Amino acid sequence: xxxxxxxxxxxxxxxxxxxxxxxxxxxxxxxxxxxxxxxxxxxxxxxxxxxxxxxxxxxxxxxxxxxxxxxxxxxxxxxxxxxxxxxxxxxxxxxxxxxxxxxxxxxxxxxxxxxxxxxxxxxxxxxxxxxxxxxxxxxxxxxxxxxxxxxxxxxxxxxxxxxxxxxxxxxxxxxxxxxxxxxxxxxxxxxxxxxxxxxxxxxxxxxxx
Length: 209
Known about the structure:
Number of helices: 8
């Protein structure tokens, strides 16, 4: 079977599994398709990338491990899931900053850090206090890493283009904010998976020519 057809089938499966998991998570609380999402997206990336990045593959693998952990309830699955996603963010940061070395980053670009600092301050006020004494600092560290990931994606966009990657990073930020609200503020699941599956797809699609 030609590689192009396999790629289309893998993408189709990713879209179907994503739609099923978004619907199930928001209406029934079941996560039957979540386990397939990152492996399918990894397959789609490998089939389409001109040069496969080990770090992008690692980001998806750690995202998959994080997904598996967060499918279970309890403190330790949450901690392990948080750690896996944070490692994945470090992989993304490496790829984004490596690309930045090829282009000139103007000093004015660093003003783009301001909205992220505002978001961090708001999170410290409205989310972190509800995380509990033991979870407060791990969540703070994760949040800083997440913001750095999105900010480096923005710098990459400003320096060289590639808006899908930055939009994906913003959706990742939104998804994790919704998870924090659900976990610590007892909000619902609505929007978490939709923003997550779009985030990962946009980031990866930005590296497929």
